[in-house]
């Protein structure tokens, strides 16, 4: 089921973070990457026994990027079976900004040697990946419309 498009007061199309996420995740999947969502927050587990004082668990840390993106060994990018490639991905709507805790966390991850990408669309993600030598040529992709009307990126045959 597709979501309705958001339009601002002037009638211009406005992308949400959910739109950007769908666009970027479709792109990564078409490239053979495995994006893993990093849920962060405090949660009450289902089946918590004490309703008056439920058990609360904390997952992740404040400022953690939205996604951890993995590439299995082998394939076009590298042939070595000893390791996989990985980077962190933070997605924002166009014009969206990082919170101070996100800036601190991303800086710490980079200082520890991790790759961290902040993107507000597929093209920005592809440009970052190309600079890191993690992406194929852009002409390999085409926009596909599925029978249900949903759009996604696919790799050209």
Overall structural class, as computed from helix and strand content, comes to: alpha+beta
Q: Judging from the principal axes of the Cα atoms, what is the shape?
A: globular
Q: How far is it from the N-terminal to the C-terminal residue, by CA?
A: 27 Å
Assign a percent range to the helix content: 10-25%
Q: Identify low-pLDDT runs.
A: none
CATH fold call: Trna Endonuclease, Chain: A, domain 1
CATH top level is: Alpha Beta
What number of domains? 1
Radius of gyration: 18 Å
CATH architectural name: 3-Layer(aba) Sandwich
Overall pLDDT confidence: 81
Give the amount of beta strand, in percent: 25-35%
Largest sheet: 4 strands, mixed
The arrangement of helices and strands along the chain is EEHEEEEEHEHEE
User: What is the β-strand count?
Assistant: 10
The helix tally amounts to: 3
Order of adjacent strands in the largest pleated sheet? 3-6-7-8
């Amino acid at each position: 089921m597709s979501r309705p498009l958001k339009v601002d007061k002037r009638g211009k199309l406005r992308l949400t973070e959910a739109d950007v996420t769908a666009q970027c995740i479709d792109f990564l999947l078409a490239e053979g990457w495995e994006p893993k969502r990093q849920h962060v927050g405090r949660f009450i587990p289902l089946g918590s026994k004490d309703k008056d004082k439920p058990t609360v668990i904390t997952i992740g840390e404040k400022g953690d990027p939205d996604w951890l993106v993995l590439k299995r060994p082998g394939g076009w990018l590298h042939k070595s079976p000893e390791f996989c490639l990985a980077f962190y991905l933070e997605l924002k709507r166009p014009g969206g900004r990082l919170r101070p805790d996100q800036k601190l966390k991303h800086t710490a991850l980079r200082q520890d040697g991790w790759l961290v990408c902040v993107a507000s669309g597929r093209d920005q993600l592809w440009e970052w990946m190309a600079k890191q030598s993690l992406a194929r040529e852009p002409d390999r992709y085409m926009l596909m419309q599925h029978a249900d009307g949903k759009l996604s990126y696919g790799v050209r045959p």
